[in-house]
Each structure stands twice: as C-alpha cells, then as structure tokens.
Design goal:
four-stranded antiparallel sheet; 3 helices
Length: 86
Amino acid sequence: KGYEGMRQDVERCMHHAHVLKEMLVAAGIKTMLNELSNTVVFERPLEEAFVRKWQLACEGDIAHVVVMPNINIDKLEEFVQDLLQS
C-alpha cells in the first residue's frame, strides 16, 4: 500500500466523515466533527436495537462513529436511513 495508499485512505475517511456529518445535519440530527477527524459525534439514538446493530460507542446522550477505510457512501446512506427509521 505504501505511503501514498495510506494517504489516500486517510483522505477518503475524512471525506466520508464530512459526508456523514452533512447527511445527519440534513436529517435534523445535532452533529459535531473536527475538521481533521474521521470521528463523527451525534445525539445518541433512542432505540437500543439500533445502537447494538451498528455497534455504536455511546456515553450518556452522545454516540460516535469512526469512519474507517472500508466504509463507502452506500453504507453511510444505509446507516442514516436506518437511524431515521429507528
């Protein structure tokens, strides 16, 4: 993979994190994301089945998702739609 491959992975993760943030904001969900991060923080979903299904890390009334290299836009869309349905 090399340095260039790792750089591309990081850029893709950060881009996808920003896409997820925008999707959540558009859905009316309060969201936080540091500019140079791939961790999206948002309001904790109420439905525990959703939290378990997506293996969300939660503390109190917040949850977060770490966008990894294997995550694509289709998976982000699935996540947001599933969240909205819960």
